[in-house]
Write a structure and sequence with these properties.
One of its GO terms (molecular function) is acyltransferase activity, transferring groups other than amino-acyl groups. The protein is about 70% helix and about 0% strand. It contains 19 helices and no strands. It has helices at about 25-45, 50-55, 60-65, 70-85, 90-120, 130-135, 140, 150-170, 175-190, 195-205, 210-225, 225-240, 245-250, 255-260, 265-280, 290-295, 300-315, 325-370, 395-404.
Length: about 400
């Protein structure tokens, strides 16, 4: 979710748009983050202690589709990761991702844990060890509860990074990216019926279409569109539709999902793909509003801190403050806190962590390099009785030269 720039020209190994910042990507991030926030605050019952439909009869019906912001985030992630990894080695790629993800995440884990320890109204923290494990961002693979339920998406992102790192190791080229998208598509289609836990774990069939589509859209922007890339993106859109109903059930519950129309979810995904296609083709390159960059930088810390802490605040003050002012106040507080996390923690700590990791990568490469081979000096031939000993080649050459 970092700020991104585009350089070059389509069809010439570059990206259209000159040095223009991709402000449209920040706009997509903002809309996706607000959608997720509205879903948590307006459509979930846990913060209000009663059905959200009785608190917000109209707004909750639309906010029930806000979880689709996660799917849109994944498309953006595929686009941005492919773009940011270009011309980098795997060491630089890992350093960039770690320094980008962890500083704000560490702050969010500690903040949310502190809120849940203080007011365990919506949910508490079962063990201090859960907080410690959550700092690794690997709790999803260890079956340790997330401190904040929104963190499940980060483990999905980490798996995508691990898979894409294989392409970086192999060499990030146009061809290798297309091969990667093809292989991952096949794995995602086969995984649900292959009865292989490992394949399903890494293929991420529910969300892989969004990452792959994002990669295809970036390749369009960098090299220009063609039938292969349109085919990849179009196939991902089709495959994504098969998981929409299951995602509605997991987010809304089987009962509410049965009475909620599914067509708006399909429409949101279609709009997300169309907007990303427009960004790939340069249709939004004229959008250069500076405030989008500043607001887009807040989406990641806002996503990390808003859910469980925000629901706890809503639950704690729900009898003292009316619903609409309460939601607006909690949202404003979370945006302000996200700005503080970005300015005081994410930027300075991320810069230092990135510098330290790059230095470590350089040291590993330097100390792992093989020393230059030392040419062997030919030994003198063994002496033969009655024959003068022959000197090494340079010495013999000098003797002959001096004899002339």
């Amino acid at each position: 979710m970092s700020a991104s720039r585009a350089t070059g020209h389509p069809g010439q190994g570059g990206v259209p748009g000159g040095d223009a910042r991709l402000a449209a990507l920040d706009g997509v991030r903002i809309l996706a983050a607000l959608g997720v926030l509205c879903y948590h605050y307006l459509a979930l019952d846990s913060g209000w202690g009663e059905p959200a439909t009785s608190v917000f009869p109209v707004a909750s019906a639309w906010a029930a589709y806000g979880w689709l912001g996660v799917e849109i985030f994944f498309v953006v992630s595929g686009f941005v990761i492919c773009m940011s990894a270009w011309d980098r080695g795997v060491g630089e790629f890992a350093a960039s991702r770690i320094s980008r993800l962890f500083p704000a995440y560490w702050a969010a884990v500690l903040f949310t844990a502190g809120i849940l320890f203080t007011w365990p109204e919506v949910r508490g923290v079962k063990a201090f060890s859960d907080v410690v494990v959550n700092l690794s961002m690997l709790q999803g693979g260890m079956k340790v509860p997330h401190i904040d339920d929104a963190y499940w998406t980060l483990f999905v992102e980490l798996k995508f990074y691990a898979l894409f790192a294989l392409v970086v190791v192999r060499g990030l080229t146009y061809r290798n990216c297309v091969v990667f998208c093809t292989v991952w598509t096949v794995a995602g289609v086969v995984a649900p019926t292959a009865d292989s836990g490992v394949l399903s774990f890494f293929a991420i069939p529910t969300f892989s279409p969004y990452f792959i589509a994002g990669i295809a859209f970036h390749l369009m922007r960098r090299f220009g569109p063609n039938a292969v890339l349109w085919g990849i993106a179009g196939l991902q859109f089709v495959l994504a539709q098969g998981h929409v109903q299951g995602r509605m059930i997991s987010n809304l519950g089987r009962g509410l999902a049965a009475h909620t129309p599914v067509w708006p979810a399909h429409a949101v995904i279609a709009c997300g793909f169309l907007v990303m296609a427009g960004i790939a083709l340069g249709a939004f390159d004229r959008v250069r509003w500076r405030w989008l960059g500043h607001a887009g930088a807040l989406t990641y810390p806002l996503y990390l801190i808003h859910m469980m802490a925000g629901l706890t605040f809503i639950h704690h003050f729900r009898h003292q403050v009316r619903p609409v002012p309460l939601v607006l106040g909690v949202t404003a507080f979370m945006v302000m806190l996200a700005w503080l996390v970005h300015r005081l923690i994410e930027r300075p700590l991320g810069r230092r962590l990135r510098t330290a990791l790059r230095r470590a990568v350089h040291d590993i490469r330097r100390m792992s390099a093989r020393p230059p081979a030392v040419p062997a000096v030919p030994a003198a031939l063994p002496a033969v009785p009655g024959v003068p000993a022959q000197a090494p080649a340079p010495e013999a050459e000098r003797v002959r030269t001096s004899g002339r």
